[in-house]
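Sanity check

After download, print the first record. It should look like this:
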Amino acid sequence: MKTILFVGAGRHQRRAILRAKELGLRVAAVDRNPDAPGLAEADIAKVVDFADPEAVLKATARLSIDGVMTVSADRAVPVVAAMAEARGLPGIGVETAHLMTNKIAMRRQLADAGVPQPRFAALRTISETRRAADEVGFPSVLKPADSGGQRGIFRVESLDDIHAHLHEAVGASPTGEAILEEFVDGTEMNGIVIARDGESIPLTLSDRLRPPGVGFGVGWIHVYPATTYGSQLEESERVAVHTVHALGLRTGIAFPQLIAASGGRVIVVECAARIPGGQMADLVRFATGVDLVEVQIRMALGEALPDELVLPKFKQPLAIRFLTAEPGPLPTGRVKRIGPLDKVLAFPGVVQADVYLEVGETIRPVRVDGDRRGYVIATADTNFEALERAEAAARLLDVEVE
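Expected structure tokens:
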């Protein structure tokens, strides 16, 4: 029996761990949180901080491992690459992992390759803010160079705004770096691309809708297929594939995020080398019939990737509505009671739903990805009808707060 190591064992990893066991694999998992839900499902569980590759290598030194992978956790990608290289296992390579997790290195690589992207500047200290602002202009987006979950991200309109938020942006970066990027208005899209031996297969492009206010970076609605059309849709697919090639990903799952702006312009926001969180694996499965988790497992084991595993089987319009506070369907405040999901799941077109709330916790206004407290996925004949169904079903969840 082959053994696969999961780096990270949170909620998203737990589902992937269960899928790996369905496929007949023995699963080892590491996470610094002893209560991580995936650890309880793993055959071998190790409590270790995977931000420390040496600690992970030491903790798993005596295990016979046939593959190593992660799901959702961007900061685990370099650790997985380092583990794979150290153990002689299939992987994306340490250099590619760095390019696809450090936004500054990514931007410079994409610039060299001629991939369209926003103006940008790296900065660490207050003394560098004027230079960065002169290079980028306003409005712009300030964010950590290497973080995730929309932590430490701010839209800034002036030098004073940068000064007010730089400390938090830098503090959210493990390397103490921030990046200032041109704010580009337009339709934001999530892409999923499978790289197979240097060939890039674009699977899906979906609209990523965001709330107003401080949580502007959080994707709280996904709509498939994307509403971009014609030549701009073709350009979006071309840019997504160009990005994957430019960053050196030959075999892996890529998650490019794009913006379709006015005048037919398409730019790259960023690109990750992992199965994304935010139910994107579910989106791909319900929209195309492709099981990204199985694809990633087979990649990690160095197995063949036949067409029937990686090519779309159909094209089903759908929408995902995350359960968030106002203007989403959830109230703000301390939770007193959570109603069942029965009415939500029974609503026409709903194919999957879940809620992560617990009595006693506090629902806060949307600011980071962690403020998404559940989701509803609905299908229909069109993407607009699917969104109407998901929105209506989400409002049927009964949550009472103090």
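If your output differs, re-run the checksum step. Summary of this record's structure: The chain has four domains: 3-89, 119-182, 186-316, 317-402.
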